[in-house]
Amino acid sequence: MKKDKPSILITGAAGFIGSALAIKLLEENNHVIGIDNINNYYSTSFKKERLSNIIKSPNSSKYWNFHKISIENKNQIFNIFEKYRPKIVVNLAAQAGVRYSLENPEAYIKSNLVGFFNILEACKSFDVENFIYASSSSVYGGNKKVPFKENDSSNHPISLYAATKRSNELMAHSYSHLYDIPSIGLRFFTVYGPWGRPDMAPMIFANAIMNQLPINIFNFGKMKRDFTYIDDVVESIKRCCFKPATVSNTFDKFDPENSCSFAKHRIFNVGNSKPVELEIFIELLEDALGKKAIKKYDELQKGDVISTLSDTSLLTKWIDFTPSTSIQDGILYFAKWFENYYEH
């Protein structure tokens, strides 16, 4: 007798990564429950279009359920868990953005801490078999040692957003230890691609280039980012969904984040491991869009880091997959989508 696939709950399902992950999982006949509060941090219509894409994807009529709720509402979260009894939970809902945390810090406390706590409580109460959650490369703060490894210092965040993401890792670790919840935190490095967040550099740059508006280039262009293509991120999450964390037999002092001897909790970098200067990124985008950018140089903004570079060897060892889409290919895919989207 064929065993039914476990149901998977995705929070932040109308988001960039969440919607792409939902489509991927549905294509492979998984039952997916999505929740999102569709807040107005950026265009709600854009988020609704992502949800429409999910509905158009294969198997959505059979395997897709969506509810507009916030992870900050504990009662509603528990009702969803009670109704669907998900075995795998992927928490991607969060108040995003480093710079916005300077303007509206309360939103980060509510969503990233209170909301995250509610998800942990639900995972505890409903015997979830695997918990995956979004962390961020921003937890490395001003770390000058590259590439960033999971056991590098992450206790000196330089933005409230980063502080909440590091807090998530500590909270998940404690719940994993106390309640035996297999948990994996994924530190994403500058995710880009079709349907990307409008507040992130690739979308801002593309929009400015196409409309001949000036691009603000901070730190006078002396910035590097480990740009990671969306398909690679989705594949990484999907594989982690079906390989829960385990307790390590021994504690490795060189890798404390991923060899804890008493908790089923692991942390992995998800990056391309090939950092690109912002100037080069813009040049590639110019070529792909066939227009030149109007550049305006400025000083480094508060909360920004100058360079990011991931070491993904632990991720590769865990799921036998390494993000590898080149920046050249990724920008071409993104630019083609961008032109088609904004022409219609």
UniProtKB/TrEMBL annotation:
<dbReference type="InterPro" id="IPR036291">
    <property type="entry name" value="NAD(P)-bd_dom_sf"/>
</dbReference>
<dbReference type="InterPro" id="IPR001509">
    <property type="entry name" value="Epimerase_deHydtase"/>
</dbReference>
<keyword id="KW-0520">NAD</keyword>
<dbReference type="GO" id="GO:0008460">
    <property type="term" value="F:dTDP-glucose 4,6-dehydratase activity"/>
</dbReference>
<protein>
    <submittedName>
        <fullName>Putative nucleotide sugar epimerase</fullName>
        <ecNumber>4.2.1.46</ecNumber>
    </submittedName>
</protein>
<feature type="domain" description="NAD-dependent epimerase/dehydratase">
    <location>
        <begin position="8"/>
        <end position="240"/>
    </location>
</feature>
<keyword id="KW-0456">Lyase</keyword>
<dbReference type="Pfam" id="PF01370">
    <property type="entry name" value="Epimerase"/>
</dbReference>
